[in-house]
Amino acid sequence: MMNALRTGVTLLLVLAAAQVSAACRWPAWDQFRKEYVSAEGRVVDPSDPRKITTSEGQSYGLFFALAANDRDAFGKLLQWTQNNLAEGDLRARLPGWLWGKKSDSEWTMLDSNSASDSDLWIAWSLLEAGRLWQMPQYVETGKALLSRIAQEEVADVPGLGPMVLPGKVALLTIRAGALTPATSRRSWRTILSATAPRGRSCAMAISACCWRRRPRASPLTGYATRKVRAGS
Which residues carry out catalysis? Predict the structure, then answer.
């Protein structure tokens, strides 16, 4: 994100933990929503001439809406994310990370590669929204998104084990510095383990209603992962 949006995001992250009360208004969220979130639920980076939206920005918006107990904003942010970054279905596709103005008459996906940090935030926000607001459809979408993260963004790296890559399109030769430490936190591992179907022994969803065991499920969770080779 560019400086303007990043400043607002940083401020909200600092204040979020202390101001989650459902009974109180959250002025910082109100200001963020007013300055950066469109009526349709798109988090806009005004510092870029293309008026870009990133999956990272959407993930922050979803988290802040959840912390503010703003169900309406959460729903709009999720709907926009799903329709425009995931071709209408977050259960079936990882969101592309960059959307914006391509020409005077065209607004579209500018880069369809995914970003694992935002994907994890979106999945977590969905799981928590479903739990707190008693909306099982959010939980199911969050679990499906985690399954896709594990399948497309997690790799078994020799010498390191299962690692979350920056995105689904990444170098097959892993080198030092190519991984994102933030995505390997114990908290993400706990979430993946807790939501994996049937615990650690089961893997990916074949369809919305059917699960199948896979012989090479990741040792990290029951979700299946792919292998890459290590390089210099």
Answer: 56, 117
* Secondary structure (DSSP) of 67-118: HTT-HHHHHHHHHHHHHHHSTT-TTTSPPPSEEEEEETTEEEEEE----HHH
Domain of residue 209: give its range. Answer: 1-232
Check: pTM over 0.85? Answer yes or no. no
Which pLDDT tens digit goes with each residue over 14-66?
A: 555 444 444 458 999 999 999 999 999 999 999 999 999 999 999 999 999 99
The CATH number of whichever domain residue 65 belongs to comes to: 1.50.10.10
Where helices occur in the chain by DSSP H, the ranges are 3-16, 27-36, 55-67, 71-85, 116-132, 136-152, 186-195
| Structural domain count, the chain | 1
